[in-house]
Please model this.
Amino acid sequence: MARAAAAPARPAPARSPRRAPGPGHGEAFRRPQATPLPRRAVVLDALLHGRAWIALVFVLLVGIVFFNVDLLRMNREIAATAGQTATVKRQNARLRTDLARLGSSERIQRVAAERGLVLPAPGEVRYLRSDPPVDALRAAKRIAAPEPQPQE
Model:
């Protein structure tokens, strides 16, 4: 017990004097009375402070990754389509060249002459006029009954 009596006494911690609240003093620090939060705010608060927040961020990140993968696939398809477009344009240009070469009047006249066709003289070309009712009657009168075949 002698030991306990020999230990120096500790001084009490110094406290700052308290001020009496005056007008306007401390009002900014007062907590407002608790008002019930809307249901959406409670759910959002629980979501942001719980483990669901991690799951939500994970799902959003996975969605972004899948969106980017889909975007890359679409870009690859667009590039392939652009390549096909260029190929088709080259083919069209080649076909137009062939069409112009094959449709030239000099080539047509040469091929016709090789096959024995000749150009008619300017006065030999005539145009026919048609009159369907009259032409049909005229054609019907000219039809002859077939002759019977002799039997052997």
Observations:
- DSSP finds five helices and no strands in the chain.
